[in-house]
Records
---
Amino acid sequence: MFSHETRTDPHLAIAEQATDKPAPTPMRSEAAGDSAPLKHVAAATSGDVPSNSGPVSWQTAMKRAIRRSDELCRYVGIDPAFAAPSAEGFPTFVPLEFADRIKRGDPSDPILRQVLPADDERHEVPGFVADPVGDLRVSQAGGVLHKYDGRALIVTHGACAVHCRYCFRKEFPYSELNAQKSKWKPALDYIRSDPSIEEVLLSGGDPLVLSDQSLRTLVEELESISHVRRLRLHTRLPIVIPQRITDALLDLLAESSLMTWLVIHANHSQEFDPAVVEGLTRMRRRGIALLNQSVLLSQVNDDVESLCDLSKTLINAGVQPYYLHQLDQVRGASHFWVPPEKGLELIDQLRTQLPGYAVPTFVREQSGQPSKTLVV
Ligand SMILES: *Cc1c(COP(=O)(O)O)cnc(C)c1O
Ligand code: SF4
């Protein structure tokens, strides 16, 4: 979906799976006072504007997501002049559930900075390139990335629950590699033919953008391969749209014969609200092991207080901090760069304030290396 060739919006296909009544584009209530908590109140002139008065399905949450930067600004009560047009092929995409955690009227909010296109995105900076981690060179048939011993990654779907402006997959040619439902056979054949693959990672995009039924089909195929012992899902959906943790999903993951690890992606403690914590708790109680990975991002989490709060929020919700990634030097993301020396200092400070298990490993991805590389 992030390919410049792709013209269709995969989020719309997802929304078609929705069973509840789909809702159109949101509008901020003009009646809300500046300090009032955000509520999706229908504008008087439109009878068909969504409201958050009741829960909607996760598919509807995807469908009614904010898709324009000026709209996002208005929604969170800041001047639309803060909005830059988003890069071609990577539009603004923010579900209301996530936007509601942005502090109203604060242009430097750490969630807003992750999702609002900035002018800086269009600056060409030497060293920031289209494919910084070399994924395009290692992809196997059917959307499999097999870079590391024992682990293979399937690009299950190109779509995501939110568009993170620092994303290293921004320019990934999903239209060629995306192992869509009907196209999983080559990926499964590849994994079946290599007995060294003990662990399969489902990534994307976001694998939980798949319907529970599609995911079940894929997991059952993997369970039938005897050398595959572990399943790992890399997903931001439990953070962005917590109602994605459906009972059917819980049953699928908890009852699988594969040991299941779920790796969420959060960068700031403000991304957690009671619904997110409840979803994580439900998963943990069903025996699904939870990890988190973050990206070290300038003016989002590059201070010891933010990282410390994030780790505490995670461990209090039963999620172990796994990796803190150095930003991949992807084109258009240079304004998120944090010098590695600063990251190392922050990690040292975290170590003095947190239990050892709450300090993530600071890594970067270097093309051609046999593992993630420790930043030292
Ligand atoms: C990061 C990554 C993995 C997993 O690496 P771990 O260190 O085991 O978390 C596997 N495959 C690919 C292609 C990756 O990028
Ligand atoms: S959810 Fe992950 S893959 Fe999708 S845009 Fe964000 S960082 Fe990129």
---
Amino acid sequence: MISRISITGLKDFLLCPRKIYFSNVLRIEKKKKSVRFAFGTAFHSGATPVWLGRKNAFALSWVGFRGDKSITYDDRLLGNWDGCMEKGRVMSKGLETFLHENDLEIVNGKRGLEIPGTKEIDKMTVSYRVDARAKVKRFPMIIGGVEKKISGSVIFDLKTAAQQYPIHAARRSIQLSGYSYLSEEPPDFAAFLIVTKAKSPKIQVVGVKVDQRLLKEFEETTKGAIAYLNTGVYPANRGDHCNYCDFYELCYGSKDGDKKKNVNKLFKRRSRSRP
Ligand code: SF4
């Protein structure tokens, strides 16, 4: 029975329950990671310390990324290691300049809270690690499709992306509403800070105003997800998002045919044994 889930896990569960079955029930290790995530993870793990003022963190994360032998990455990126390092450096520089220009006062995030559920799962711990929380003054942010200058407290989630986000990306985001809900003191705004993986990276801030409606929505959605988890049914929801899924090969056919067959057998057996 799943009793602990991260915000990202919750988002995945709402998108495709089968994915959570692979990762949280069968606990299948991700053997091959999509190159998009590899790049994002390396950038991300270096970014938080930079937020908090510890320089050189990017260099360390990139070295760690290269040396991580436990995961097989798609070799398109590793084949062009120098280009990748250069891109990372440019993106890091862009982010640092942005932080400097906007004079953000960074304070730490918090993690973990128990949310009451129903029936067998009477409570669920939803954990999160927010990238930064800052106090801003006349800070430019796209809200509801329009750029505004906002003042107040903001929670940031750093994203790397191939291209800029749609201007309404923050609306109905379970991550942003979740981070806000789980904060000891809800922020005034929650936003994605997106750094694009271009030669000249663009930085974009797409956010949402945090109000009672947003917090209530998250609570209701989470309670609904917990109730659904109680049923023990994890159907696959196939779609474009499968292209970014670490379990793609298990779902759609794998070079390792036996493994796929075994996982499918196990899935059927466990599904049948559920009430
Ligand atoms: S490949 Fe698609 S259907 Fe299969 S677990 Fe991943 S997201 Fe779900």
